[in-house]
Amino acid sequence: MKVNNSRLNWIYGLLAFSAILGSCQQPGEDLTDRKRRENEAEIDQYIKQNNLTATKTEQGIYFIQTKSAPTGQAPQTGDEVRYHYITRRLDGVIVDSSDIAGSNPATVILAESNTTGITLGQYAGVLKLRQGEEGSVLVPAYLDGGRIGTLLLPQYSPVRYDLRIVSVRTEEQRILDYISANKLTVTTKTDDGLRVIKTLSQPADSMAITTGKTVTLNYTGKRLNGTTFDASTAGTFQVKIGEKRVVPGFENGLATLRAGEKATLIFPSSLGYGVTGTGSGTNRILPYTPLLFEITIVKVE
Questions:
Q1: If residue 222 lies in a helix (H) or strand (E), which one and from where to where?
Q2: Which residue numbers delimit the PPIase FKBP-type domain (predicted)?
Q3: Which domains does the chain have, with CATH numbers?
């Protein structure tokens, strides 16, 4: 499988800079250099002792593929990857894992520097594997995101991640999956990926929503996993069409409706919060996240 080395080089370029900053907090640069050499020696010894066939990437991690699925979907920036992992020290002690027994994989949206919820070592491993494949990466500590360290996994310890890719889904695939799973009938689909599902229609003589109109509405904003990130207070949210004060998918969806109608709007991140996302905490919208809005049009004037 061909891996996008430019993305990996970019990631590890950031890591190299982080390592320089981190080393300023150590007793001296010699400590950092020594730990790197020790990590390399530990990993080399581990590979030999376990008779592993490992490929060293140009970034400095070691990749071992244990199950191949050549026709599986390869992950790209913007994709959602569901995966299982086991984190081990090189002495075999398990430090962390996904919920393998409960068949509840970890989920990550690949967004390069804006990616959250995954270590850099895991990220590098995920990029090497297709859907259905399994493998491991052996990662020197300085290439794992400048970890602080814990009792189970000290700061300068190399680490092994065993990975199994459960699914790889683009934004478009995730939207189609949602529509299919919920047996929705799309009323309108635009070339830029907006879907409108009308759940209550009104006659043609009802007030249409056009540029310059002020729309009073109720809405609930959700992610495709069903979690709510925002909601209006009944009858208090207003939008003037054309002022572009809301994300394009929301405004463009409203422009397909009339007074008194109800609809569900579904659109990709290109019509939402793009490659950076927005918000924080429970309201956080991650990069490359499709959005869903349940809309009730109260008044158009």
A1: strand 214-223
A2: 78-169, 212-301
A3: 5-169 (3.10.50.40), 172-300 (3.10.50.40)
pLDDT tens readout for residues 57-76: 988 999 999 999 999 999 99
Indicate if the alpha-carbon torsion angle 166, 172, 174, 178 is positive or negative: negative
* Paired sense of beta strands 214-223 and 228-231, if any: antiparallel
- pTM for the complete prediction? 0.86
What is d(CA 148, CA 31) in angstroms, rounded to the nearest whole number? 15
Angle made by CA atoms 285, 287, 290, in degrees to the nearest 5: 70
User: Across the chain, how many H-helices and E-strands are there?
Assistant: 5, 14
pLDDT, tens digit, 9 for 90 and up, residues 91-146: 999 999 999 999 999 999 999 999 999 999 999 999 999 999 999 999 999 999 86
Residue 133 contacts residue 96 (beta carbons within 8 Å) = no
207 close to 258: Cβ distance less than 8 angstroms:
yes
Q: How far apart are CA 173 and CA 171, in angstroms?
A: 5
Alpha carbon distance 117, 80 (integer Å): 12
From the number of C-beta atoms within 10 Å of its C-beta (0-12, 13-18, 19+), residue 62 rates as buried
